[in-house]
Specification:
mainly alpha, rod-shaped
Amino acid sequence: MLSAQPLLPLHRGLNAITTGWQNLIARMRDPYRPERHYMRGPGPKWHAKHAVQAVAVG
């Protein structure tokens, strides 16, 4: 009967490779893209609160 001890390092190596591939695929399939949700500047409430009085030129 063969012992499983000599195959243990091979099993661990293959397991690490498989886990790495699974993590890579999961990250590639993740629909969240933070660059699509960046702040685009102050909104209408900020503009209303910080309204600058127009100076009449003329």
